[in-house]
Amino acid sequence: MPPTLAQRLGFAPDDRVAVIHCDDIGMCHAANVGAFEALSNGPATCGSIMVPCPWFEEAAALARANPDADLGVHLTLTAEWMSYRWGPVASRDRVPSLLDADGYLPRTALEVAKNAKPEEVEIELRAQIEKALAAGVDVTHIDSHMGTVFLPQLVPVYTKLASEYRVPAFAVRPDAELLAARGLAGAEKLFAGLMDRLEAAGSPILDAFDAESLDFPEGEGLAHNRARIARLVRGVTYLICHPARDGEELRAAMTFGAHHREFERGFYGGEAGRAALAGAGVRTLGMRALRTLMRG
After folding, report:
1. DSSP label of 82
2. How far apart are CA 237 and CA 214, in angstroms?
3. Dihedrals φ, ψ of 90, to 5°?
4. CB 74 within 8 A of CB 144
5. Cα separation of 29 and 224, whole Å?
6. Which of 135, 164, 207, 253 is within CB 3.0–4.6 Å of 84 for a Cys-Cys bond?
């Protein structure tokens, strides 16, 4: 039997290992504050930056000031909020199929699926990675805001970028239950093929994915996140969170989720999260370790 990903990373075959990943860095000032607090205090281990967003420059400055921070690019093709929007990094005349009627990135993945031309997606996503690198971000990985790069027509672009920049791309073997919960029942073979492409490009494939961030009633964050940790499976799981500091800015930017992000800032950047992981016997690591593995 070939070694598992956990074993290749130095863990035991039965270890439960979590990549505690902070999404949406750069989206706003509150997200930058929350993410870097979580990354500094732990147990959060890594995160990714939304390069097209208005607060990217602050995120990049924080990355330069914290060179040990494990940060990737949160490849972004959507701008989902009602009144807080952003456009592409590439000039609009080069990526017209990525724009909505107002000249911003569209609000939904469905609009991306209907309109985006893969060649223009490549132009934009490459521009996002290059801008992060030029700003001094040591890009450890790439992943996808709202999952848009996992549209079948866009996976070749995702694979190509991971291979060219020699960084791991977030990728996990398909789980039938998780796919069904997201309205994709029966798509296991399709997603298995997509993962095969990424693995062929040299990107390590994670064992599991926990996407249950921002999914709990106010006041139930502790129980919800302890349960997330308790059900982590053997192997390496990518567990996402969205830490941000609650306040007027965050609540003005988005239509929901401020209390979730505030809770996750404290839990994944404080003693409660550390204790829950330790109590469950869960080990942690960031994506830089996977980049090291990928680059040999």
Report:
1. S
2. 18
3. -65, 155
4. yes
5. 26
6. 253
What angle in degrees, to the nearest 10, is found between the helix axes of 155-165 and 188-200?
A: 20
Domain regions of the chain by residue span: 5-295
**C-alpha–C-alpha distance, residues 178 and 184, integer Å:** 8
pLDDT string in tens for the chain (296-residue length): 889 999 999 999 999 999 999 999 999 999 999 999 999 999 999 999 999 999 999 999 999 999 999 999 999 999 999 999 999 999 999 999 999 999 999 999 999 999 999 999 999 999 999 999 999 999 999 999 999 998 889 989 999 999 999 999 999 887 777 666 666 666 677 777 778 888 888 889 999 999 999 989 989 999 999 999 999 999 999 999 999 999 999 999 987 889 999 999 999 999 999 999 999 999 999 999 999 999 98
* C-alpha 149 chain-centroid distance: 12
Cα separation, 216 vs 225, whole angstroms? 9
Distance CA 29, CA 245 (A): 9
Q: How far is CA 19 from the centre of its chain?
A: 11
C-alpha Rg value of the chain to the nearest Å? 18
Sign of CA dihedral 144, 149, 150, 151: positive
pTM surpassing 0.90? yes
Report d(CA 251, CA 227) in Å as an integer: 27
Helices (H), 66-187: 109-115, 118-134, 155-165, 176-181
Place of tokens 């699926």: 113
Q: Which residues contact 286 (CB under 8 A, 6 or more apart)?
A: 19, 45, 46, 70, 140
* Cis peptide bond upstream of 54, omega within 30: no
